[in-house]
Structure formats: C-alpha cells, structure tokens
Amino acid sequence: MSLIDITFDVYSDTPEGKDPDSYSATLRQYHKILWSKPLPCGKSFSLDLETAKLLHHKSELGEFFLSSDAITHSYKNVKKMSHIIEAIPSEHANEFYGSGSTIGSYIIFPSRRIDNKMTINGSRGTNQKIMDRFDLTLECIRRFYTKQSSPLTDTLERYADFFNLFEDFRGYIDFFLLQDLVENDYQGINFYLSFDDFNRSPLPNSTNEYYTYKENTLAFVKAGNERIYLAIQG
Fold first, then answer.
1. Domain boundaries in the chain?
2. pLDDT, tens only, 100-152
3. Which is nearest to 151 in space by CA: 113, 197, 110, 193?
4. Nearest CA among 156, 144, 153, 138 for reference residue 195
C-alpha cells in the first residue's frame, strides 16, 4: 500500500471550520514523506513533526520551520469576484472549491516571520498583484533566482536561506515536483491566464476567463498528483 493516497481529501480529517494547512494530520504527514529527501547538493532535507502544526528541519544546512500552504484558489468567497461567481452555475465554483483538497494542491513555505514582517504565505495572499495565484507566485520565485524584481522580491529575499537550499530555479521546481507549471526549458511559467508582467489584475475578469483559470488550475493539480504518485512508487 502506498504511503500517500493522492485522492485523499485533507478536509476529511480537519475539524469543521478549520484550515487543513494547520489541522490535517494526514496532510502534515504527507508533506513530511514527500519533502524529506536529498537536496540538489546531495544533503538530506529530513523533516520532523515535533513542532505543533509545522514541519521542522535542523542540520548543518540551518534550521527551518515550515508550514503547509494551499496553492489553489477558487475565489468563490472573494468579494471582488462576486459578480463573476454569481454568473456561473454554482456547481462549477463548488467543484473548483472542492478540488483544492488533495496533496497536489499543497506545498510548504517557511512559516516563521522575520523582522515581524509577512511570511511568503501571507504576502502572496495579500499582494494585489498576486492574490494567492500560485503561477504568479512561481514567476516571482523564478525572478528571485535570476535576480529580477517582482511583487514579492522583498519577501522572498527575507527567506533567501530557504530558496538557496535548491541552488537554482530548476532545482526548486524539480524538488517540489512543479514541472507541469513551467516550460520545458524552465525559462518561463505556464500561466493560468495571459500574463503581462504583473500589470493586469490577477483575478479572472470575465466568466470565460474564470473557466480558463479553473481548467488550467485543475489540470495542474491533476498532473501534480500524478507526479507525486510516480515519485512515491520509487
């Protein structure tokens, strides 16, 4: 039997009204299994569950406290999106909302604030040019490695010690099995919606765009789960 069930709904072992990122014991265990492995440098990035709600690593590489973060967002309950959400059949928004419940919809980021400033999770959720979109977050991470500016530059640079563990953008992508969201040469992102250098709103601006955003996001989650399945088969 596999140690990870890519169909497992992490809300099923989360208390009602709580966030799986903090309260799903299964999700936390899955993260530990998946990301406890060698880094590009060859050294082990072993994680433990000794800190409540978090994952922890301590070695000569440094000490890291990490938390789960959902990388899908249906915008079902976002006020700015209400006119679009109300214009589509409820089953579409509900399906999208429910899709973010498997391991392929989650990643880990450093969880401790530095200088009492926002974490990556907090910054990408509140930045008006990102609005929790993971494809846009990944473009910011790509630019971090190429020393280009982005809406998340200040935040990512605060956590440079974490990103330096993976050496470069390819190392980060391969470690976290994110290949389906980048081009084959790792030089660009497969964006959910047309990209214009962070000038447009990150939110879908029509029902057609919402459907496109939904389709591309769900395709990424499906592909990610398949990569996870293959990875844990050995």
1. 10-233
2. 899 999 999 999 999 999 999 999 999 999 999 999 999 999 999 999 999 99
3. 197
4. 138
Higher pLDDT, 223 or 95: 223
**What does the DSSP assignment read for the chain?**
--S--TT--GGGGS-TTS-HHHH-HHHHHHHHHHH-EE-TTS-EE--B--STTSEEEEETTEEEEEEEEE-----TT-GGGHHHHTTS-HHHHHHHHHHTTSGGGEEEEE-S-BTTB--HHHHHHH-TTTTT-HHHHHHHHHHHHTT---TTHHHHHHTHHHHGGG-SHHHHHHHTT-GGGB-TTSSSB--SS---TT-S-SS--SHHHHHHHHHHHHHHHHHHHHHHHHHHH-
- 189-208 tens-digit pLDDT: 999 999 999 999 999 999 99
* Overall pTM surpassing 0.85 (yes/no): yes
Residue type, 136: L
